[in-house]
Write a structure and sequence with these properties.
By secondary structure, this protein is mostly helical. The protein folds into 2 domains: 93 residues, RNA polymerase sigma factor, region 2, helix turn helix motif (Rna Polymerase Sigma Factor, Chain: A); 74 residues, Arc Repressor Mutant, subunit A. The chain contains 8 helices and no strands. Helix 4 crosses helix 7 and helix 6 packs across helix 8.
């Protein structure tokens, strides 16, 4: 039996330790996903906490439909979309002030972030999931509820645009 399924079942039975283990297992992935979208540490932490809160509130209704991690990404994506709708703008701002301190090559990281920020929204979401979150193409298709050929096309287009950016 999958460890995630066991954890979810324990969480459904109000096992606090299982909940803590679950959060520890996925917190950094969900935080990074949120940070890559909104570029603000505090907001990314808030979105990450909101994601887990929503998961725990709905855990009794959760049924195994794939990877739990993908379900968390979907919740996080909804949190981000709701936030952006409320603010009516993407909070990408001045990335130089928000780059993570542990990045050794700050200039490279800034260049990558600028390049990704320049992608059209449909390509950007796919690029973040593929290049930064290291999800497989099938997982991205399931998560975004689009076809696998469309995911492949978006990755190809994102690569093309990013390569053009680097050549400049």
């Amino acid at each position: 039996m999958n460890l995630d399924i066991v954890l979810v079942e324990k969480i459904k039975h109000r096992n606090q330790r299982a909940g803590e283990d679950f959060v520890k297992k996925y917190y950094s992935d969900i935080y990074q996903y949120c940070f890559l979208h909104i570029r603000d540490r505090q907001l990314a932490e808030d979105m990450t906490q909101e994601t887990f809160l929503r998961f725990f509130e709905s855990v009794d209704r959760y049924t195994e439909q794939g990877k739990v991690k993908n379900y968390l990404y979907r919740i996080a994506g909804n949190c981000i979309k709701n936030y952006c709708k409320r603010k009516k703008e993407l909070l990408l701002g001045d990335m130089a002030e928000r780059v993570e301190e542990n990045i050794k090559d700050t200039e490279l990281r800034l260049d990558i972030e600028r390049a990704v920020d320049g992608l059209p929204e449909t390509l950007k979401e796919t690029a973040i999931l593929f290049f930064f979150q290291k999800l497989k193409q099938r997982e991205i298709a399931d998560l975004l509820e689009i076809s696998l050929p469309l995911v492949k096309y978006r990755i190809k287009e994102a690569r093309k645009i990013l390569l053009e950016y680097w050549e400049k």
